[in-house]
Amino acid sequence: MDRFTAMAIAFIAAIVAVAGVIAYYLGVVFLVRLVLGLGYAAFAVLLAIVFGILVYARSKYAILALIGLIPAAYAAYQCYVWSQPLHVGYVTAGYILAAIFSIWWLAEPDMSITERLRSAQSLEKAGKFRSAARKYEKKNNYEKAAECYIKAGMLESAAWCYEKAERYEKAAELYEKLARQKDEGYYWKEAYEFWKKAGKKDRAAECLEMYAKDEPWYWEDVAKLWEEAGDAQKAKAAWQKALEYYIKEAEEEGVFWEDVAKIYEKLGEEEKAKAAWQKYAEYCEREAEKDAAWWKHVAEAYEKLGDEEKVKEARKKYEEYRSKRG
After folding, report:
1. Does the pLDDT value for residue 151 go beyond 90?
2. Membrane spanning segments where (predicted)?
């Protein structure tokens, strides 16, 4: 048993012991008065503070705090004088009912009281599609909820429901529609994810292609996806786009020459691949002067270039580095 658990158990035991002593010497009724009185007093103080803050902020909700404060203060007073003990019971019952009503209200915050009392089917027939969707959602009838959300113009909520229902194709279609409506790349990415889950690699590739227009580092993923979909021509076009992106990056940060070289190899352009490997090797050599761990990458680059002498030299330096590290 850890120290915190032991302290918690000791604290609870102490409270139970004190309560037992009070009940034994002063009676159970006194114990109930004490517990309720302290509870209501603390609650009244809290509500008084909240009321003061809301009055200062000129909030319309100050009246609700006042409505809660008055019975709490009265119940605390009755626990002290005990002249009308039934009134304490009435106040307690009132707070319990208020708590139940609040939970019920917060469960469906956008609905009116009449909508809460109607069935999902009744609300749907009446054209209250958003409220009907919420009702269907609570019953885990996600497909019907999605249909109602679509009629209410709430496409993102509908897509989420289709996801819960594992209707990934329908979710993907909705995200495509949102992408076109809102002209936001995020929705293309979502559509791609759901087409992929649905096993539609060609549709997934199309959506990721749209996303890559704004986020070009995804062109490599697009190319690989077209390869998986069996479309060599579109894969090649995507590899060309990925190559353009990596060349720009490599001109600023030499580490990307490795990616450039690999794509040139993929496209069958051996001479250009060789030139890119050379640039990558030179970049790695410069980095190795600052951090000897880079000699490993130097060796790999010159291995691609077929320069055995430089491969041996780089490996030797890398092994020296490793031996020094222990």
Report:
1. yes
2. 7-32, 38-56, 63-83, 89-107
38 and 23 part of one domain: yes
HSE-CB for 225 with a 13 A CA cutoff? 23
Q: Stretch 120-134: mean pLDDT, rounded?
A: 93
Is 326's pLDDT higher than 70? no
CA–CA dist 134, 124 (Å, integer) = 11
Range of the domain at 41: 3-107
Same-domain pairing of 173 and 314: yes
pLDDT at residue number 1: 61
Within this chain, do residues 83 and 172 fall inside the same structural domain, yes or no? no
Q: Could you tell me if 170 and 197 lie in one domain?
A: yes
- How far is Cα 311 from Cα 299, in angstroms, rounded to an integer? 5
* pLDDT average, residue stretch 36-41: 94
Task: Kindly state whether residues 180 and 304 are assigned to the same domain.
Answer: yes
- Count of residues making up the chain: 326
pTM beyond 0.90, yes or no: no
- Tokens coding 277: 């490997």
Judge whether 132 and 148 are in contact, CB under 8 Å.
yes
pLDDT value, residue 273? 96
Query: Could you give the number of structural domains in the chain?
Result: 3
Q: Which amino acid is at 280?
A: Y
Check residue 15 and give its pLDDT: 87
